[in-house]
Design brief:
Rossmann fold, about 15% strand, single chain, FMN binding, 6 strands, 6-stranded parallel sheet, alpha/beta
């Protein structure tokens, strides 16, 4: 009996105050519910000096999470990119990482792979959608297939609780107290992770079947 076909998902995030990191962990838990899917979490390298981070009160980056390289995008069948907002736009750290992938664009190395997004803002109207918008041109130029989450969790259609997330992906409203993500926000992240993993596995299985025809 032949071994089952497996899919690989790399979750690549940047997080200053651990909010996005916790969201990434939720996405991983959800994705791992899908059989025959391998999931890894990687972090984007910091670009701010240590003295600046110290003045910002930013905690140390986790030592057990590898720093992502462009090769980590190539090796994955699906990629989830997570980041906080900076004035409604993707932060410089994530932008610097993506800017380093020009060689992948030149060779078409990412064409056909699937990608999803998740994000964090400090307020309800701090850029939950506009921050996602700023990554769409990158996905298009690389030929990545964007997999939006849609309204994939019932809490996203209710207004009884203040939560992050949008049809573009799971999100957090961090707040000034830093008491996030909430239980509901993590549930949405897990739901997106599971949904994304299923879509990636379906594509991988379909491609393998097409090759055998």
């Amino acid at each position: 009996m032949s071994a089952p076909i497996r899919a690989k998902i790399n979750i690549v995030y940047y997080s200053t105050y651990t909010h996005v990191q916790k969201l990434a962990e939720g996405l991983k838990r959800g994705a791992e519910r899908v059989a025959n899917v391998d999931v890894n979490i990687l972090q984007v390298a910091e670009t701010l000096p240590e003295e600046v981070l110290a003045k910002m009160g930013a905690p140390a980056k986790p030592e057990n999470v590898p720093v992502a390289t462009p090769d980590d995008l190539v090796s994955a069948d699906g990629i989830l990119l997570g980041f906080p907002t900076r004035f409604g736009m993707v932060p410089a750290q994530m932008k610097a990482f993506l800017d380093s992938t020009g060689g992948l664009w030149a060779t078409g190395a990412l064409r056909g792979k699937q990608a999803g997004l998740f994000f964090s803002t400090n307020t309800q109207h701090g850029g939950q959608e506009t921050t996602a918008f700023t990554l769409l041109p990158y996905l298009a130029h690389q030929g990545l297939q964007y997999v939006p989450f849609g309204y994939g969790h019932p809490a996203m259609q209710k207004n009884t609780e203040v939560i992050g997330s949008s049809p573009y992906g799971a999100g957090i409203i961090a707040g000034v107290e830093g008491d996030s993500p909430s239980k509901t926000e993590l549930e949405i992240a897990e739901a997106q992770g599971e949904y994304f993993a299923k879509q990636v596995l379906i594509r991988v299985l379909g491609e393998k079947a097409a090759e055998q025809q």
